[in-house]
Amino acid sequence: MIALGTIIGELIGIEKGFERFGEWLKIKTGNSSDKRFVDAFVTASLTVCIGAMAIVGAIQDGISGDYSTLAVKAVLDFIIIAVMTSSLGKGSVFSAIPVFLFEGAITLLARLISPVMTETAVAYLSLIGSVLIFCVGVNLVWGKKIRVANMLPAVIFAVIAAYIPWTF
């Protein structure tokens, strides 16, 4: 799932898209002289956009209208972004834009496919989210070594894999 999703993400160039959007934001917000703006934006966006709480919380909201996980995540994100802003720069603050788009899209998609969502699909999504957030952590500790945004299509393959009859 992760390998196939990463290949698709690499072909599409999702990480480059994040960086281009960060560059656009940098100019539009008057932060052209901030050399760390784009890196802060991309790192913070990936940190708060992906992960089990983001994916499972948005799915819970879409399927049952229960936004409690997203509410808790919002408080945690606020603290995380405050810390990241102080260490990486003000580009971190703009991670709210992709969070809104990503979690909103997952919530709407979950509402549409709620009749066919299974516990297995949610578990697979949670697993992929956890792996992706681990990769973000690796990048934070050892420098940018993994293009995590390019791994995002793995989320789609996680749902598909939940419906494949596996027999071993």
The 3D shape can be described as: globular
The helix tally amounts to: 8
Uncertain regions: pLDDT < 50 for 5+ in a row?
Answer: none
Portion in strands: under 5%
Terminal CA distance = 17 Å
Order of helices and strands: HHHHHHHH
What is the arithmetic mean of pLDDT? Answer: 89
Gyration radius (Cα, Å) is 16 Å
Largest sheet at a glance?
Answer: none
Relative helix content = over 70%
Class by helix and strand content? mainly alpha
Domain count, please report it. 1
Counted beta strands? 0
Give the gist of this structure.
By secondary structure, the protein is mainly α.
Helix and strand topology:
Blueprint: H1 2-12, H2 14-28, H3 37-49, H4 52-64, H5 68-88, H6 96-113, H7 119-142, H8 154-162
